[in-house]
Design a protein that fits this description.
Layout: H1 3-29, H2 31-43, H3 49-68, E1 80-81, E2 84-85
Antiparallel strand pairs: 1-2
Length: about 100
């Protein structure tokens, strides 16, 4: 594989890693909106089961997606070291490769 195509593959991989992180952070940061929605539905006597299941599935899917992303350099899980997912990290948990290409 040539150096240019290797760099392009790394850039694509790092972009996928950043996108996975962004999706999980959006889900995390919209949690207060979810609480407001659940409380207003419950206050009006409506069922909140569907909303709760949807949010939990969405959160779990985004969390798993972020957890399984692999570093293009060391091929270890980018945000996971041991059993802990550190989504706030800006570099690989194992080799220190920055998530940005700059």
């Amino acid at each position: 594989m040539s150096n240019a195509s290797n760099n392009e593959a790394w850039a694509r991989s790092l972009k996928d890693i950043r996108n996975a992180k962004s999706r999980l952070l959006v889900c995390f940061l919209t949690f207060p909106l979810y609480i407001v929605a659940v409380s207003s539905l419950a206050k009006n006597g409506n069922s909140v089961t569907a909303l709760m299941l949807l949010y939990m599935l969405l959160y779990a899917g985004f969390g798993i997606n972020a957890a399984i992303k692999r570093c293009p350099r060391c091929h270890e899980q980018f945000y996971v070291k041991g059993f802990f997912l550190n989504i706030f990290s800006r570099k690989c948990a194992h080799c220190g490769l920055p998530a940005t290409t700059e």
